[in-house]
TrEMBL record:
Localization (cell): Membrane
Signal peptide interval: none
Species the sequence originates in: Sedimenticola thiotaurini
Transmembrane segments annotated in the record for this chain: 40-57, 119-137, 143-161, 173-193, 199-220, 232-251, 257-275
Name this protein carries in UniProt: Membrane protein
Gene Ontology cellular-component terms listed: membrane
Domain EamA, chain residue ranges per copy: 6-134, 144-274
Topology of the protein relative to the lipid bilayer: Multi-pass membrane protein
Keywords: Membrane, Transmembrane, Transmembrane helix
Keyword Membrane applies: yes
Amino acid sequence: MPATRTVVLILLTLLAFAGNSVLCRIAFKETSIDAASFTSIRLLSGALMLWLIARFWRRVNRGKGNWTSAVTLFVYAAAFSFAYISLTAATGALILFGAVQATMIGHGVLTGERLHKQQFIGLILALVGLVGLLLPGLSAPPLIGSVLMFISGVAWGIYSLRGKGTDDPIRITAGNFLRATMLAALLSLALISGSNLDIVGVWYAIASGALASGVGYALWYTVLPAMKATNAATVQLSVPLITALAGIIILGEPISIRFMLASLAILGGIALVMMHKEQSISIDTGGSVAVEEGQG
């Protein structure tokens, strides 16, 4: 793949991943759509887009997903939506990213991976940044929203770990999205008394599912083979920063000193862990890279 095309596709992919947070936050700030409906529409739109891509542009035809992965995908998407009722786009993206990577790193440690000194320092730095962001104070994010986003990130990380080594990640992700849609529909039915299908909010949910999720993942899977493993693992560090910039420009969100210091600690710490040595990767449902030691 030509270098220029690779760079363009990477940029488009990162914009799509950041777009999920921005679109979700815009929907809850500027429309009256409820979180359960947003989740259902996002998952259904993503499933349809991924199915179309797998059907017409992918050659491999193996894998349909499974219910266990679909449950973790549903928890990620639902908690993500409900968290963004109160969180800013930038804060939500940073907590999500930190929780995903904490899950990945924690899994590696529990399965026998040894952290080198640089990695251990990076992990401590990231945890200090996350705790500092969430400590009570005037500029602290809402507790319930923060907890929900952390749960979303853990679920996202688990989904990613379960999805390693698949033959056709787009088709499998489409199957998991479809199953997760059924779970989201049950949630919408349970909360139907508070449902509100605001038409503009519906379009934001469709854009989040079909474009930011479906097309975003397809772009990432396309460009991934042309990237070095370490590069693929580290480019995702820019997603919370892109989200923060979009939040400032589009939503007029303020960025506090606490957020900036926490961002430096979290992103810098995770970078130390990732960049210690060559790493192999797999992809999770939200576009983040699952880091796994091994074949570089």
